[in-house]
Write the structure tokens for this entry.
Amino acid sequence: MFNKRLIPIICLAVLFVFLSLLDLSQAALCAFRNPDRGIYRLFPEATGYRVVIKSMNKDIQKKIEEYLRQKLDYDEGGDHTFYFVLKGKEVIGIIHPHAERGTYGIVEMVWAFTLEGKIKDYIIQRSRERNTKLLKSNKIRIQFKGKGVETPFTFYGTKKINTDLFSFIEGAETAASIVAYSAKKSLMLYRLFFPEYIQKSKENDIEE
């Protein structure tokens, strides 16, 4: 005979599985939850922003997979949203919200880049990973600042954070690896989608 006392437990289990699958299915669909506040936090000098949407084609997907030495997730080949940060009419930086699958669900990152393609800062919007608080601290964030696509964020051919380069992550290795891998992916997407800004920055350096 079916035990009616099990009904609430079964319902909770089904709900948990449904939410987990929903969470994982939205990995590539990372929204900037509060751009009006977040943009000015990342770029205090900003006066506005505009949204630019780029679609990943097979050529870009191939290039980023070769760079990562990893296959992209099945749902990462769609549209990617970037925020062009403005000071008056001038673009002074670019922001890219990005999601990575973690052990306990989706980790939502917001990356702020200089026009030269370097990390200015980041925000962790959402994470259930252990010791995420440590990754939000300045002593970790400062280690990412100024780094670009050439940086070996993870050990070669893996998704594991390069502990020879980053320190103070004891107890948060999994979460730190997710952040490092997201940095690699977002920086490469920036370079592939907006090569004109990288090239312009290089030309300005030569002129100076």
Observations:
- The longest strand covers residues 90-102.
- Residues 27-207 form one domain.
- The radius of gyration is 19 Å.
